[in-house]
Every structure is written in C-alpha cells, then in structure tokens.
Amino acid sequence: MIKNLAALDDGTVSVSGWVETVRDQKKVQFVVLRDETGAVQLVNPRNSDADGVVIADEPATTISGLAQGTFVTATGELKHDERVKLGGIEIKLASMSVATEAIAETPIAADSSLDKRMDWRFLDLRNPKQNLIFRIQTTFEHALRTYWIDNDFVELHTPKLMASASESRAELFSLDYFETTAYLAQSPQNFKQMAQAAGFGKIFEVGPAFRADHSFTSRHATEFTSIDSEISWIDSHEDVMKLHEELLAAGFTAVKEKHGAEIKALFDVEVTVPTTPFPRIPLAEAKEIVKSRGYEVPRDDDDMDPEGERQISAYVKETYGHEFVFLTDYASSIRPYYHMRQDDDPSLTRSYDLIFNGTEISTGAQREHRVDILEAQAVEKGLDPAELTDYLNFFRYGVPPHGGFGMGLARVLMLMLHEASIREVTYLFRGPARLTP
Fold first, then answer.
1. Local structure of 62: helix, strand or coil
2. Distances (CA, A) of 110 to 114, 126, 129
3. Is residue 166 very low, low, confident or very high in pLDDT (cuts 50, 70, 90)?
4. Domains contained in the chain, number
5. pLDDT per residue over 236-269, tens digit each?
6. Which of 28, 177, 186, 357 could form a cystine bridge with 415, CB 3.0-4.6 A?
7. Are residues 163 and 156 in contact, defined by beta-carbon separation less than 8 angstroms?
C-alpha cells in the first residue's frame, strides 16, 4: 500500500491504484497514483534518439494514453527525496500495466453540485476528504462498541420488519408481507425494552431505521443508521445521560487520536473531545435564554425549534465552552406515551434531547415500567391498548426501571466535521427524492 512506502528502503517496489493526474512532458512524464491509503508520484524519463526525437516506447506510450481514474499497477525504483512535495518519495518507473481503463471525460468535478456528486457517488468517494469520513465513522463506531463491551453490554440485532408501528403511524413505510402488511421499523424501541424485561440488563444496537418523512432538510433521511442503547436499574434519566455523555467522549477521543491531524488538514476542523458532565438545561429555562438573545420560540410549540437549537448551542458554547447540551424536562404532550412522567409534575417527562453544535442528535428518557400507568398514558394519547398487547405484555411479568436513547450516526458525523448536509456523511443517501444509486 502507498502509505507503507515511506518506511521502506530505496529499492524495487510495486504499487497499484487509480491515476489521479498525468503531466506528459517532452523529457519526463509524471503520474500521481492514488490508492485508498494515499498518493505517490511516478516518474518516467523519456528516451530520445541521437537527433533528440522522443522515442515512442514503454511505459511512455501507456502513460500518454492514461485517463484519470484508470487503474494501473506500476513497478519501479523507490527513491526518498525530500524535494518531492508529495510525501518526500517517488518511484522511477520500470513498467506499468493497465488493469482497467477509465472513460476519458469524468462526469463530476470538484465544483459539481451535491446532487450530481450523489449520482456518481463511487467516484465522489475517491476524494480523500470523502474517503476519510468513513474511516472516521469506523473508528467512532469501534470506540462506542469498545465502551459498551468493556462495560458488559449485550449487542442485539432487532428485526426491521414489524407487524405494527414502533412509535408513530405517521412516518411508516409499509410493504406487502405474504398475505398481510408489514412495516419498516422506525426504531428498535419496543425490542430494546423487551430486552430489559428479558433480563439482559444493558444492551446496544447499531442498525438501520426508516422514517417515511417528506422532509428535504440537510439533516433528514428516510433511511439512517441509528445508535441505540438501553439500561436497567436506573434511578432517573440522569443515569441515561451519564451513559450517553461517557459514550460520546470515548468516541470523540478515539477519532481525535487517530484522525485529528487528517481532519484538520482536509476539513479545517479541530476535533474537540467533550468534557463530562455535559451542560444540562431544562427546556423552559432554555427557551428563556433563547428569548433573551433576541429569538422567541413559537408559543404553540412545546418543543425547541431549529433556530432555538442553534441559539441555545451558541449560548452554551459562549458560557461553558461546550459543543453539547442536554435539554431536559420535556412536556408530556409532545413525548411518547412510554416516557416516564415526573412525580411532582406529571405534565413533564423524565426525558431529554441532546443538542450538538446547534442540531438535535438524540432523544433519551427513563421509560415507564409500571404497566397500569403505561396503559393509561397510551389511552391518553389516543392509542388502543389492544393494539399494544405484545408490548404491554413485557411489563406484566416484572421489569426493572430502565431507560435509553436513540441517536443518529450521520448527524453526529455531520456536526463533528462541520459538514453542511447529512448526505455528505452517508455512504448512500436515501431521501424522498433519492432511491439510487
């Protein structure tokens, strides 16, 4: 691999990769070759006859016909030379073979629109900046798993085909399922809680979720990767927040240590490992803070709207020097029936939203584990308990106090890297207007 060349002594080497650029000069040819680990310069001095006429020989003839993106294998003499701007090394070519040729005119360029780049995503991902995103994603997920496993969590893979809605029928994808109708899971919520009734104690899942949401914003997708965790034996949603912040701190630490320099070079972003505990602000107080900054969240909205999220994040950054903030104490009117309500004020829930750099990335809560209260809250929300029989049965045979969260992986990456759209950090984006490639 190209990244390993710098550590080798001068001598014969072979490398393979995509042709990035060709400079076909009269006396010497230069080719920049890139694989998934880096780029290296290939050098081929041209041969001339006694009259100074360039001889059409190999590998010169092959180089002259190379198009960007052609995949080749090159063999030659590795030379360390600090004058070479690209890594301080180059390879003097002896031979070159073409494995697959590329069409000369590429369909996208550096200034192509995001939609155009998404049409040709496999070419777009050859860009080192785009490529790095998914190495960061790998490191981040591995760090989360390491935290979970080191703390005795169990990994689950819950079904994505469901007989009924997991949260709301408003955003369901339905499909034919033999003689009946099935739905794509909006979240693993029910199954996470089933694991608590089953005695698993602490679980996690990283898997797909689906929302039939006609939103065309920069932060919404119809299919996304959800990071979920659920734990038993909690006293309140504070225990869930503690898990959440420790998990994120572990993930950001791993990313900064492994990719911090590359992220700075390619994204001009300094990855900051969040200190714990994260700031916590009750929603009502957060709205007052936002109002004092000159913006008022609409009165008919019990939630925090996008502009409010940006404003409270700016306040937290200025006041606490922190990129994260937990907004707590959400109204029961806008929370699901399974969120536990506060003992001293049933109009509020033991729940939170986690805001990162101005955007919500997660919702978490303590769940209601007392079946009589749970059933009453479902009825209050207009739900028929008969349709919730399988779910409610979890709580009829003893379940410990528990809670958890769901978090969008792509949103975390988007905000970590200060990218403008979730499409940039999703391998293959799915939205209302995109189902290919």
1. helix
2. 10, 12, 12
3. low
4. 2
5. 999 999 999 999 999 999 999 999 999 999 999 9
6. 357
7. no
Q: In this structure, is residue 366 part of a structural domain?
A: yes
For residues 101 and 372, what is the distance between their CA atoms, to the nearest angstrom? Answer: 68
> Is there a single domain that holds both residue 413 and residue 335?
yes
Pair (80, 205) in one structural domain: no
Q: Is 141 helix (H, G, I), strand (E, B) or coil?
A: helix
d(CA 388, CA 323): 39
User: Quick one: tokens of 147?
Assistant: 């935290």
Q: Which residues contact 74 (CB under 8 A, 6 or more apart)?
A: 14, 15, 16, 31, 33, 42, 59, 91, 93, 95, 96
The answer to whether residues 22 and 66 touch, using CB atoms and an 8 Å cutoff, is yes
Kindly state whether residue 430 falls inside one of the protein's structural domains.
no
Q: Are residues 397 and 287 in the same domain?
A: yes
Task: Assess if residue 106 is contained within a domain.
Answer: no
In a domain, 109, yes or no: no
pLDDT at residue 317, as a whole number: 98
**CA angle at residue 256 from 253 to 262, to 5 degrees?**
165
Quote the percentage of the chain above a pLDDT of 90.
Answer: 92
CATH number of the domain within which 407 lies? 3.30.930.10
Domain that holds residue 88: 2-100
List the CATH number of the domain containing 54: 2.40.50.140
β 71-80/38-45 pair status: unpaired
Residue whose token pair is 């003689």? 179
